[in-house]
Every structure is written in C-alpha cells, then in structure tokens.
C-alpha cells in the first residue's frame, strides 16, 4: 500500500526562505565552515571592516592569499638562512614552557640566540634568532607551531 502525504502550498514567506536556503552553487567558489574562537573572529571582523573590506569573505580570501604567498616563499627557500622566529604563547598552557625549551635544545646547529618577553599576565613572546639550513629551520618552526599553547608563530628571514 502506497502512502500519500498532502502538503499545503508554501506560503510566500516559506518560498523566500526555501529560495535563500537552496541556492545555486557559486561558480568558482567554495563555501566553508570553520570553528574559530569568538574573540579572534570579533577582532578579525573589526579589523577587516576598519580597513574597508566589504564582507568577511573578501577579508578571509585576502588573508589566505597572503598566507599562501608567505608560506610558499618560505618553503621554496634553500641553503643557509638567517632570521628570527617570533613565537607568541600562553605560558599557562600545561607543559608549554618545557616543550618549547626541549624543541629548542634539539636545534643547536640552527638557533643562535633567544629572548623571552612578557607581553601580559598569560602571554609571552619568544624571539628565536637562527642561522642554518632552510630545511632545518622549517622543521624547527613546524615543531614549535605544533606545541599546545602556541598562539602564533612567524618566521622572518633575511637575505644573505
């Protein structure tokens, strides 16, 4: 026995909601969903509006392009590379101080000096000067970035 369900005709409001919900795919674009800390998103939105981005998508696209161009350039670099790693972290995160120190001690051939700066009650900045083979520098940066409690890491290289 077949079942039949009768539905009333959609109201104008329901038609508008459905039309907006079931959109045609955007040509050449991908829709993404991210989980981002509220404060970070609020700060990002405020900054992007203040510099004139018409919407969040435009700001995120620009940020992604900048990220890609910086990282591609860093990955392409070969040979001996001097520079600094700027590492911001939450020093209250369990084990972060020990983990960062251990990683740094594994790279005596690369790290030439470090400086520790207290930014706030919970946040520190570690400036790590280096001079070494680019692949070792990338390895060091990846290990540091992967530690729990690391908030931000930037590698700044200098032309030789």
Describe this structure in words.
The protein is α+β, with helices and mostly antiparallel strands and 160 residues long. It folds into two domains: 38-72; 79-157, Alpha-Beta Plaits, CATH 3.30.70.1150. The protein has five helices and four strands. It has helices at 12-21, 38-50, 56-76, 96-105, 134-146; strands at residues 80-90, 111-118, 123-133, 150-157. It has a four-stranded antiparallel β-sheet with strand order 2-3-1-4, with helices on one face. The mean pLDDT is 83.
Give me the secondary-structure topology.
Blueprint: H1 12-21, H2 38-50, H3 56-76, E1 80-90, H4 96-105, E2 111-118, E3 123-133, H5 134-146, E4 150-157
Antiparallel strand pairs: 1-3, 1-4, 2-3
CATH architecture of the largest domain: 2-Layer Sandwich
Query: What would you give as the CATH superfamily of the largest domain?
Result: ACT-like. Chain A, domain 2
User: Beta-sheet strand percentage?
Assistant: 15-25%
Average predicted confidence as pLDDT? 83
| Form type | globular
Look up the CATH topology of the largest domain. Alpha-Beta Plaits
Report the structural category.
alpha+beta
Low-pLDDT segments:
none
Strand order of the largest sheet: 2-3-1-4
Number-wise, the strands total 4
Terminal CA distance reads 81 Å
Number of helices: 5
Number of domains: 2
CATH class of the largest domain: Alpha Beta
Largest sheet: 4 strands, antiparallel
| SSE topology string | HHHEHEEHE
Radius of gyration, whole Å: 24 Å
